[in-house]
Amino acid sequence: MVLPANVGDDPRYTDRLVPMTCPEDIPLEWRNSPIEALIRSENMGQPIAETVGQPQLLIATCIEFRYALPIPRMYAYVIRRASGRLVGSEFSMAYILAKGVQHLALIGHNDCGMTKVAENRVPMIAALIAQGWAPDRAEDFINAQAARHSMADELDGLKREYIRLRRIFKKLVIAPLFVDLADTRLFVPRWYADLDPTQQDDAEFSVSDIDLITDIVL
Ligand SMILES: [Zn+2]
Q1: Confidence at residue 1, expressed as pLDDT on a 0 to 100 scale
Q2: Cα–ligand 1 centroid distance for 146 (angstroms)
Q3: Given 2, 101, 103, 177, which residue has the most CB atoms within 10 angstroms?
């Protein structure tokens, strides 16, 4: 099966996602923003109008080939990385912020390959060796990166990245979203809906400094 079951039919996600079927379901802090436009496009059949000149949004999501973004040209910057984590993309982020973007849609998804890194580790090493990498270098590289990129649970991984990004980019409006690969509907993670907007930097959501380290090599 190429596409997974709907998230509503999968016990791993049931009750952990809040649907958005009408504009009133969209969290207040995202209303009248490019994030609302994205949600309306995916969930309410209202395509995003093409804009000219001013990028509106940054969308960060997984490399996942089963998800195509519903955006016209001239609308959004897009960073796609394994699991949607932006570690190592800070230079790109600086450029995008310099262009005036103030909103980030951080989109996780079900059935993510980054929950299956362990079973893919050996073929990934073999793929690099086939590209001419020395076997020990390929193995060291994949082993070192696997821990950083793998996650046990997509919704927990999304939360972790949301909190990390809030610490690094304090003025950016960040919307953690979760897309159902089966029909591309967007959901709000339950953990976000349950947050008190005034208490989002609570110690409960703190991230250790080690998790803020990027891939920068000086
Ligand atoms: Zn993924």
Answers
A1: 60
A2: 14
A3: 177
Identify the residue whose tokens are 């959901």.
187
C-alpha 85/C-alpha 214 separation (Å) is 11
Ordered by start, the domain boundaries in the chain are 1-112+172-190
Give 110 Cα–ligand 1 centroid separation in angstroms.
Answer: 7
Residue 118 identity (one-letter amino acid):
A
Q: Does residue 25 have a pLDDT over 80?
A: yes
From ligand 1's centre to the CA of 98, what distance in Å?
28
Pair 162, 128: CB distance under 8 Å: no
Residues 6+ apart with CB under 8 A from 82: 62, 63, 113, 114, 149
Given a contact cutoff of 8 angstroms between Cβ atoms, the answer to whether 23 and 36 are in contact is yes
State the CATH architecture for 1-112+172-190.
3-Layer(aba) Sandwich (3.40)
Q: How many residues does the chain have?
A: 218
